[in-house]
Specification:
The protein has 268 residues and is mainly beta. The protein has one domain: Acyl-CoA thioesterase, double hotdog domain (Porin), CATH 2.40.160.210. The strands form two sheets. Strands 7-8-12-13-14-11-3-6-5-4-2-1-9 form a 13-stranded mixed beta sheet. A two-stranded antiparallel ribbon has the order 10-15. Helix content is 9%, strand content 44%.
Length: 268
Amino acid sequence: MIMSAYYQFIDRHIDEQGVVTATYRSTQHAQGAWNPHEQHMAPASGIIAAELEQFQPREGMRIGRISFDIFGLIAAGEFSITTRVIRPGKTIELIESTMQANNKTCIVARVWRMCTSDSSEIAGLEDQPVTHPDQLPLWEGMTRWPGGYIQSLIVKVDPNHRAGHGIVWLSNEKAMVEGQEKSDFVHLMGMVDTANGTAVRQEDPFTWSFPNLDLQIHLYRYPSGRWLGLETVQQYGTDGIGLTSAILHDIHGPFGRSEQILTLRKMG
């Protein structure tokens, strides 16, 4: 049963060029982990994914890649998402969404929408399935993080989890937008950014912060279901830059990969 939502819908406007601007307000459930006055990138990317998914859909095409660049703090409260086509095409098209709050750009997302065809005769994956979430225990390890978004999650963990590498499964019972059903795609995309906190390469208490500046998602299969599996590796370089990488799973198997570039900053 859906108990509440990450966002409240306010307004939507479409101009003469087909550019769509939607206005929302974040709730406590979208609260971030680094700052109580910001939104977590996971639900923020989920609400952007919702706008991208419903923007001028075309039969026989699907989203193959989403890139999110994070310009700065994602302020809580009211914000807008403006979506437009920036590279039209018959078989591929590039769509852009810009999220703004307090008259500042927070996130710019770009999607490649690609035509689909039956390639089953050459299909093959190197990424392997992992243990189904029904066979794993609940995990309290994510409670190290504060914020309303993290509190909204249901988390399960593989017993081989360790610092720097591990498999966790995530789900939640929140609507993305109050009063609206969310697709499986939006539900899952709205949790991918959590990968950066699932296999932290430090023991508590952290001595370095490691916020991500982007989120890149590549989808070799369109996902379904309500559980997101994150097979995550976190790596730190020697010059203040790190990388969090994850193989993405739904209950049917692997469906893509994500990458997040990290800025490593000494705390205290």
